[in-house]
Sequence to fold (399 residues):
Amino acid sequence: MKVLVINTGSSSLKYQLIDMDNEDVLAKGLCDRIGLEGSFLKQTGIDGKEFINKVSMPDHNAAISNVLEALTKDGSGVIKSMSEIDAVGHRVVHGGEKFSGSVLIDESVMDAIRDCIELAPLHNPPNMVGIEACKELMPETPMVAVFDTAFHQTMPPKAYMYAIPYEAYEKYGIRKYGFHGTSHRYVSNTAAEFVGKPIEELKIITCHLGNGSSICAVKNGKAIETTMGFTPLDGLIMGTRCGNMDPAVVTFLMNKENMNTKEIDNYLNKKSGVLGISGVSSDFRDLDEAVSAGNERAKLALEMFEYKIVKYIGKYTAAMNGVDIIVFTAGIGENNKIMRQNICSQLGFLGVDFDEKLNDKRGGIFELTKPGSKVKALVVATNEELAIAKDTVQVLSVR
Fold:
């Protein structure tokens, strides 16, 4: 079974074609600058050959059309015709309280995704555009929606409710939703397989660390707490997001700087985080270079980021009454060995017996702790595209 995985952004579209019989990625690519000048498609085949097509893509329909052409045409194609695509799996950021798992897309599901646009105004609209474009160009091909928020729907009310008047939840759905759910689910299950124990018997803390970062407490295979909230702005300090703070800061800044709601939203989402603290960059690699050059603000930004991670690991250990495995994943979690060491060196009190030599490894999945360590620390490379494809197969197998 061949599954086309689609991840649509406002001006970009990432895709992978996966043969689920052996989980081979037949092709992966990116359509960038959709609706802008200089749009292009870049695709890499299973043989590693790269194909670039600088072509006008005024909208997402044109992007999907170019994807299908690149997958099938002579020179770049990996299949003979689009009829070989058995299903499409769509990443959808927000499913609200409506979806606790992946679902076959029909008109009612599309309406529900539209209803969640108010909760994710930057993400759900392009996700919907991708679904509508595929529906128009591939009307007979079944499609599945895989939601970032779905995995976190097992959180209990005591974890997801905010202490504001209850009517705000009833009227507007204001509560913690959490994000990165597909990644947290994938790496927690992979970690359980790696240690050879049923996930239903484990307490796992998954740390998805990248430009956008979140931590999740997974108890017996179910998410019971996560750092991101009503929006991805909550929780950890990130590349440009402020993370959690006293909410009174918002109105104070609006008054002092004479900012409107759009301006304060941009200030907290795009100008804060390690960028705002360091004044250097939102890219952690740039911060490492700046620290090496003696930049104290860059050093402070990294220390704040690491401190928050350690603090949340402690909180979530308490929330689960223990922890068996701590997982590092995503761009920073998988690649920044210095940060992993700085974090794990502060977790000895939990029983993390960190091994510096093991920390030098890269790629796939590997352990960071010594044999006999009470709590295992692992690096697990996330693979959200494969998770989406697996969900697509599973949903279609039971319909």
